[in-house]
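Propose amino acids for all 469 sites.
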């Protein structure tokens, strides 16, 4: 019987898993997750959440007669060892698109093929392969709307079933212990807090999608920016680790749209926004490191990640309630409402004139739903230096944004304890999660603004004008 190693990465599910199903059709399957640089270099919250996803997948695999094998080391070296131990003649995996992963996967594929092993990558992390979407001139898209028009009517593969059983190899190789990896160690006391807010595994993700489609998608376009409402799908963390496939989300959105749900088309557009981010990262791999647009390298951003104003922003102590509530939401839950992400990014890069890479790096450390493509594109988009960017002179006013999207102040009260006689648990959880060395307490006085909103806006516009003079 043929033996296939399925090298798992950000595809931690059984349902609609092209590589896994192709392997199962050949014979015995050895699912393995390798702890290499890809895991060790992600931020604390993402690494912990990745471990939670692995634990859930191990249970799902056990339910179909299989198991999750864990190994550490350089991917090619580990896979060669497993080929020798299992007699496998093929290694399958799902494609990734960030530059480091692409470089690694090319090296792995070349090495295995040189050994006479079938090495094959499959889709499943995005709806459309980045190289399959081109402008009429034959190049990549740089603006979202034409990209959306190019893909919105394309055929998308139907979601595939969940295997009822996976054939095991004659002998299972030895593996490592997930607890021994201590993936949550860097979170310290914040780990117990974040764990309460995570929705983990393919079963929970599928239920989350079903609930959204049943109860919220109809009003999604109208309500999705309301930070005081549960109006979005919440699927970002599940898509990040592949606990649900984009095909499943797309199929549910199309069915809702065809069924007359008013907000379903906009849900599909948000899925394609994620696609656009991966399209850009593939074609412009320096997106997380360099200004996308010309003329921004000399912009007078503050690059000091430890400056007083940056620390105030990181700690949710800027004195601007909407900004602070959003930063605390992220520190507690590992996630942040998308509207709030735009507000805090605009505040950092424009009101505080701090470099977008500072914010991108902090998000990478704190977000449990961190995504290499979306994070990089989002920060450059808001800062004004990125593809299809919001004009630099568009400076979000956090107070007017709060009036519009948190009109009764529910979101701000949910996350800011100072000044409340009986703060909710969400607000208090922030002080249970932050490092003790920050010395913060719910009994502290709420700070004055580190910069006036009008002052910060005027300074940003002056810098923009000077750049263009």
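Proposal:
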């Amino acid at each position: 019987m043929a033996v296939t190693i399925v090298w798992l990465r950000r595809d931690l599910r059984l349902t609609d898993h092209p590589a896994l199903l192709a392997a199962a059709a050949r014979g015995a399957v050895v699912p393995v997750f390798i702890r290499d640089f890809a895991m060790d270099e992600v931020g604390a919250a993402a690494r912990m959440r990745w471990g939670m996803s692995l634990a859930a997948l191990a249970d799902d695999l056990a339910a179909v007669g299989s198991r999750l094998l864990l190994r550490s080391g350089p991917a090619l070296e580990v896979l060669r060892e497993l080929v020798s131990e299992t007699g496998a003649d093929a290694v399958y995996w799902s494609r990734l698109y960030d530059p480091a992963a692409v470089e690694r996967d090319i090296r792995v594929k070349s090495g295995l093929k040189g050994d006479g092993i079938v090495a094959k990558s499959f889709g499943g992390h995005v709806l459309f392969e980045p190289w399959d979407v081109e402008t009429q001139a034959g190049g990549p898209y740089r603006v979202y709307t034409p990209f959306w028009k190019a893909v919105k009517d394309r055929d998308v593969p139907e979601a595939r079933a969940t295997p009822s059983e996976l054939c095991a190899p004659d002998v299972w190789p030895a593996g490592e212990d997930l607890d021994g990896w201590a993936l949550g160690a860097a979170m310290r006391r914040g780990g117990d807090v974040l764990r309460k807010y995570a929705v983990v595994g393919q079963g929970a993700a599928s239920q989350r999608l079903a609930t959204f489609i049943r109860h919220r998608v109809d009003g999604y376009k109208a309500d999705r920016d309301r930070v005081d409402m549960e109006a979005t799908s919440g699927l970002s963390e599940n898509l990040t680790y592949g606990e649900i496939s984009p095909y499943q989300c797309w199929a549910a959105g199309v069915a809702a749209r065809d069924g007359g749900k008013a907000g379903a088309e906009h849900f599909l557009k948000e899925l394609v926004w994620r696609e656009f981010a991966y399209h850009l990262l593939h074609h412009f791999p320096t997106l997380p490191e360099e200004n996308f647009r010309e003329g921004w390298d000399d912009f007078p951003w503050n690059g000091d990640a430890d400056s007083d104003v940056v620390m105030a922003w990181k700690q949710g102590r800027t004195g601007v309630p909407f900004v602070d509530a959003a930063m605390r939401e992220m520190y507690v839950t590992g996630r942040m409402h998308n509207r709030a992400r735009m507000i805090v990014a605009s505040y950092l890069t424009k009101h505080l004139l701090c470099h977008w890479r500072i914010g991108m790096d902090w998000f990478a450390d704190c977000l449990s739903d961190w995504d290499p493509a979306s994070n990089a594109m989002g920060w450059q988009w808001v800062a004004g230096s990125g593809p299809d960017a919001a004009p630099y002179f568009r400076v979000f006013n956090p107070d007017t944004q709060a009036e519009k999207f948190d009109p009764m102040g529910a979101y701000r009260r949910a996350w800011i304890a100072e000044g409340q006689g009986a703060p909710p648990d969400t607000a208090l959880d922030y002080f249970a999660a932050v490092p003790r060395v920050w010395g913060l307490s719910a009994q502290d006085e709420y700070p004055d603004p580190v910069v006036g909103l009008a002052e910060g806006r005027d300074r940003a516009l002056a810098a923009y004008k000077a750049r263009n003079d």
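Residues 223 and 229 are 8 Å apart (CA to CA). DSSP finds 22 helices and five strands in the chain.
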